[in-house]
Design brief:
Elements: H1 2-27, E1 31-38, H2 46-62, E2 65-66, E3 69-77, H3 83-96, E4 101-103, H4 108-121, E5 125-127, E6 142-144, H5 149-162, E7 168-173, H6 176-192, E8 199-202, H7 209-218, E9 223-227, H8 232-243, H9 246-249, E10 251-255, H10 261-264, E11 275-278, H11 287-300, H12 308-326, H13 333-340, E12 344-347, E13 350-354, E14 361-373, E15 376-388
Parallel strand pairs: 1-3, 1-4, 4-5, 5-6, 7-8, 7-9, 9-10, 10-11
Antiparallel strand pairs: 2-3, 11-14, 12-13, 13-14, 14-15
The chain binds P-hydroxybenzoic acid.
The site of P-hydroxybenzoic acid (PHB) has 12 residues, from helix 6.
């Protein structure tokens, strides 16, 4: 009796195993792989950590599947602006990992190095951390949820002129977005009616900040306009500006990278009063942003603080989830690009549009001043320019 029962259960087990074996391919959950090309080490390592937090937060809210398809992530560390590394890692993600879509890469030189691979393999990529103008047009598969340099620099130059600044000195990091900032600011300030007091390019490797500060002083400007990529360089710049006494005498204006919320506390009060142009402040007063800020605080206790690339990553996730839902759980690259380009949707920063032709982003730009709120430093917006073109 006992023997007959165990034979019966053995047979039943075998039958269900066989049935599973037959059914397995049809029932197996499909997976879409998202490659992440971010910086997880070196002077900009905080970026990768924040971006990962935002992805966790998005999946907590919207789930880890879309239309029954599991969304899986494969992370790679670009280590900063390193085009050879970025290219090798992108190749690895595309060929070995067979990712369907990429978020990243960050940094302009990395985007330029990866663009041809995206075109060849037909892999869409959404840029959340590189800002030079024109780079998104290097591949029909590139799109951007960050910002472009002219988009934020032009409004800054125009504000400077309206504010009565007449002799600004331009200080930029010596690579793509810095050169773009220098050219855009100089041209826009000239168009407003003025001329700059000169410019200087700061090396990304081992910059000599004390000699740079001396050069700013020697130019006797009434303001310094600065582009530094967010990270340790921006903190070092703010500290040197305060330590050498420039802070009290020469007005400091910049793109929002200099006063990125994730880094600004590291410079102490050196960041207070700096006026910047940017695309996001956690203080933005919309129901969606209030929820975004509250969820991040509840989940990560603001450690590290979120910044403007956080909204870039959040919106990239939105685009990927919506794109997969529209294809009922699939991600065909060309259909995804066609569906996403031209879309207009709400972000924690406000309404944004992915430009149909360029894949770049149209969005509002705010002029902000760094102030102390609740014991921390914040970019407090005081002027908004709507629907600014990325070109
Ligand atoms: C860029 O490399 O384009 C870049 C990186 C960091 C920023 C802004 C631009 O904060």
């Amino acid at each position: 009796m006992i023997l007959a029962q165990s034979v019966r259960s053995l047979l039943a087990g075998l039958a269900s195993t066989l049935a599973l074996g037959v059914l397995a391919p049809a029932a197996a959950q499909e997976t879409i792989k998202v490659g992440l090309l971010f910086t997880y080490s070196g002077p900009s390592a905080l970026a990768g950590q924040i971006n990962d937090n935002v992805i966790k937060m998005f999946q907590q809210k919207y789930g880890a599947t879309v239309g029954g398809t599991k969304i899986e992530f494969v992370r790679r560390d670009t280590t900063g602006p390193n085009p050879e590394v970025a290219k090798r890692l992108a190749q690895e993600l595309i060929v070995r990992e067979k990712v369907n879509v990429i978020i990243g890469p960050d940094f302009t030189p990395n985007v330029l190095a990866v663009a041809p691979l995206l075109t060849e393999a037909k892999i869409p990529a959404i840029v959340t951390g590189a800002a030079t103008s024109g780079i998104i047009e290097k591949s029909p598969y590139l799109m951007r949820t960050f910002f472009s340099i002219p988009q934020v620099v032009r409004p800054m130059a125009q504000w400077a002129w309206r504010d009565g600044i007449r002799k600004p000195f331009v200080v930029v990091a010596d690579y793509g977005p810095g050169h773009d900032s220098e050219a855009t600011f100089t041209k826009a300030f000239a168009e407003a009616g003025g001329s700059t007091a000169g410019s200087l390019r700061v090396s990304l490797r081992n910059p000599e900040f004390s000699s740079y500060m001396q050069r700013i002083k020697d130019a006797k400007p009434d303001a310094a306009f600065v582009f530094m990529p967010a990270g340790e360089l921006s903190v070092q710049f703010l500290k040197a500006y305060a330590d050498t006494g420039l802070k009290g005498s020469v007005k400091l204006i910049a793109t929002g990278d200099l006063t990125d919320e994730a880094m600004i506390d590291a410079a102490g009060d050196a960041g207070l009063g700096v006026v910047t142009s940017g695309i996001y402040s956690p203080l933005n007063d919309s129901p969606m942003n209030r929820q975004f800020v509250a969820d991040y605080k509840a989940q990560f206790n603001n450690n590290p603080r979120m910044n403007w690339s956080s909204v870039g990553v959040w919106d990239a996730m939105r685009m990927i989830y919506d794109g997969i839902a529209a294809q009922k759980g699939k991600l065909d690259a060309d259909k995804f690009v066609a569906f996403t380009r031209g879309r207009n949707f709400e972000s924690p920063r406000g309404m944004i549009t992915i430009d149909k032709d360029s894949g770049d982003i149209v969005q509002s730009v705010q002029i902000r001043r760094v102030e102390k709120r609740d014991g921390g430093l914040f970019n407090v917006p005081f002027e908004t320019i709507k629907d600014v073109s990325p070109r």
